[in-house]
Amino acid sequence: MAKTPRTLFENIWDRHLVTAETSETPAVLYIDLHLIHEVTSPQAFDLLRQRGLPVRRPERTLATMDHSTPTLAASLAGGMPPGPAREQVATLQDNCREFGIELHDLESPQRGIVHVMGPELGATQPGSTIVCGDSHTSTHGAFGALAFGIGTTEVAHVLATQSLLQRRPATLAVNLSGRLGPGVSAKDLVLAIIREIGVSGGTGHVIEYRGEAIRSLSMEQRMTVCNMSIEAGARAGLIAPDDTTFEYLAGRPLSPSGVDWEHALERWRELPGDEDAVFDRSVDIDVSELEPMLTYGTNPAMAMPVTGKVPVPNGDAGLRRALDYMGLGAGEPLLGRPVDVVFIGSCTNGRLSDLRDAARVMAGRRVADGVRMLVVPGSQDVKRSAEAEGLHRVFTEAGAEWRESGCSMCIAMNGDSVAAGQYAVSTSNRNFEGRQGAGARTLLASPLTAAAAAVSGQISDPRQYLEDDGQ
Amino acid sequence: MKPMTEYRSRTVVLPNTDIDTDQIIPARFLTTTNSTGLGKHAFADWRYDADGRPREEFVLNQPASEGCGVLVAGDNFGCGSSREHAAWALRDFGVRAVISTRIADIFRSNALKNGIVPIESDDETHAWLMANPGVEVTVNIGRRELVLPGDRRYAFSIDDFARYCLLYGVDPLGYLLSQEAAINDYERQYHCVR
Ligand code: SF4
Fold first, then answer.
1. How would CATH label the architecture of B6-189?
2. Which domain does A230 fall in, by range?
3. What is the tens place of the pLDDT at every residue in A56-82?
């Protein structure tokens, strides 16, 4: 009998079943790697203490501080100012010490946004299950790992049992043909995908991104795509591992080495699903005609080509409300609209290649008068690498602020925020009302498009700048 | 968690679609190490103006909404961030059931762990509830039924295990811990594979 074709998702899921699901009980799924940070973990450790439970596998748990930490070197060196954020950071420190968990604290040269740090360290590995009390855990799916966000009670479950109760999700194939044009990046691709699927189109599903357009992306670009899977409501995003994946992982601190590396490669090469595997649903997109994208509304599906016009709500109350919040008129173009703030950073676009992209546009130019530009590397490692290439000088000489790593203006918990009513072009992942500060108006874009807005002081097509420079 | 077999309350309607957890509780309130007392921050940017004064026109600030424990919301409630603070804030604010045509995955899971029943209804029931705010409804967990005025009944689906945990006040962590032998076996079989 012919073997039933299998998906990548099934290959990972089945291999992690401690107990299969029944109609009465969910599956018990083993978790290979648990990432934690200061914001969603304190209450989970409290639960452990209340119950007198240890952390089952501290060596499979890795901690960092990123969300509420300052990005100004002075506030880090001088110690965080007293207040709830400092308390949160101190609580993580205490918890990690008490339960024996490795922590990249404010002094660690490897500290970073949790979804930037994991891959950099080689902790993120193909075929593994990875969870974190953070919805953008989907990022790690770029390596062919089943990675998803969980709530704090579940953080406690994983700490205590290294397992989770899960119902098997459905599968959605996103087939991407063609190649991205010049000046069009992974961020534009994922915004186009979310616009196509909708903000809730992926609910209950694990997305697998497939096809030529995905294969040709670098690991950092693949992470950008998987990162935003949650913005389509998906449980997780997956990309089958290939030589690009293995090259990225080779020699990383936590990657297997020597003979273990050879064995790992053998296992990893078995992971991809069969060509004819059956998905519950599928969507096909040809990416060759895509343009740089920009959001105009208050969820990431409200996206359009940067050269386009804001849609007319007609009877759509949600869109009407979004345009009111954004202060944008139906049917108007966004090109030429003045901006106040530009933010380059986050777990979506805070990696070295993102900073290089921004620097391509910024080199030899200045941030326009009246615009504030913040460049926040995704990790201390990204920061050092960028400085080694001199990228920081491109930014500072242009008049931008060059910061220490962290989530910063993506979530505006640490004091880096956008004022009410201001327009921010941001390389982060959420344009929700108030996400970058109460009343802030966020337009999501790629690092190229954000940099073009910074130097022109208005929404601009980055391809113009690349062409002018003969790039 | 206390057992929850049936819950009766009036509804309050938030018609917006795609209400994300950043609206349910804005990020600036997440610098807490507790899970209690967050109800005062629920929908903070919709409830209060920049100076912290209640916006009287906002439905949750109106006297008629007082004591309403069933939140009826537009499609795709609870999308976005995984913060369980959203469930903690709603629970503390007095919400015990949420009805929408679609409820985001992580929020659903967080809600259930905090005694909030997530109910996905069909379009017709939902449209009726949206058009009739303030009606008294009963959420019957044992029968998986939402009972509307005039004894109209809507059968909702709820995961068997989640229903069992609600009905008997069972903590899912206890169940997971009872799987220890199987977890040990699993680790022995596949040791040190990350
Ligand atoms: S950068 Fe933004 S999206 Fe990413 S982990 Fe931090 S807050 Fe979350």
1. Alpha-Beta Barrel (3.20)
2. 170-242+265-286
3. 999 999 999 999 999 998 888 778 888
